Amino acid sequence: MIQSVRYQKGHLYEDHGALFVRYRLGIRQADGSIKLQRMAERLGKVEDFATKAEAETARQAFMQKVNSAQTSLYPSMTLDEFVEQFYLPWVKSELRASTYKSYRDIWNLYLAGRVGAIRLRQFRTVDASRMLRSIAEDCDLTKTTLGHIKSVLSGVFTHAKNEGAYDGENPVEGARIPRNAREPGETYAYNLVQILRILELLPLLPKAVAATASFAGLREGELCGVEWPDFTGDALTVKRSVWKTIVNEPKTRASRQAVPVIPTLAKILDEYRASMHNPRTGVIFHQGNRERMDMDKLAQRVIRPAVEASGLPWYGWHGFRRGIASNLYELGANEKIVQRVLRHAKPHVAKDRYIKAFDPAVLEAMQRMQAVVDGLVQQWPAVGQQQN
Q1: What are the two backbone dihedrals, phi and then psi, of residue 288, each rounded to the nearest 5 degrees?
Q2: Cβ burial, residue 23 (10 Å; 0-12/13-18/19+)
Q3: What pLDDT, in 10s, does the model give residues 75-101?
């Protein structure tokens, strides 16, 4: 039930060379009731207003916001209350489970203790800027991570605007990432020589997984989700992505497209399928129990030790995915082709999301990669000695 609050005019007064407006704000109590509390808002310095009429206009504009807030469901709600009662439940119901966990962790670790007590409707850009500076000073985070934190808080206000809990511009958008924050670390990709060396070292199951990541560019969750009907011999269609035990559709329409399969990958997958008694249904990668493979455990227990024992660095699953992008680009594929193979979705190339058949240029790029792979395989004794 919404408590009825009368329309307030607000009282304009001067104090220490500044103009303030005094008003009453309904404060939510522990029992859910609303109690009025006297408040004051600084409108600016006296010299900021050339005439009394200008000061009155500022008072009216501010009190219009106050009166609008008092008649809503969120008259004095703090950020913490809004996030816990409205925003995170919405994220949980509308977005992926992994996204919900990430947002909740960011809120609990970095945001709640710094800005959670600020009232939603009183939050300003300066609060976001101070928060980011505080996090940068207290935590050894990169600018990229600080950007993620800023994005989560910005999403809170986007949702608040959609719910009618906040009016005006999103106050987080103008906040700056501190210049002295740590730059993100360098990311790396495996080249074709390294990929072939890694595949040579691995048993058949992890070899098939690593080859699919290297030559088809599947993400870790997509490797968990791929099933035998998705593999036709010359193409692999990504229809699902798995996080822990939760099966989702791929993130975007572009991610749900098929990827050409070069003969090297097809041969490895065929050998692996034969070793599993030629299944036609079910998940592709498992340990004989038909349960989806835990890719983190496979990497940590089998692939990473083998890679590092050979003298090569471990770049993680994304090292393989970045590898196909780098290798295709080096072989002459343009950025649009690489984007198509990796199934990235960006607004200015949205038309690529709807391609049903492979572009000739995509197939040509994949065939050039196959030709290089064939050449490397033929001279493998010499190539295998390289540590690049």
Answers
A1: 100, -5
A2: buried
A3: 678 999 999 989 999 999 888 889 999
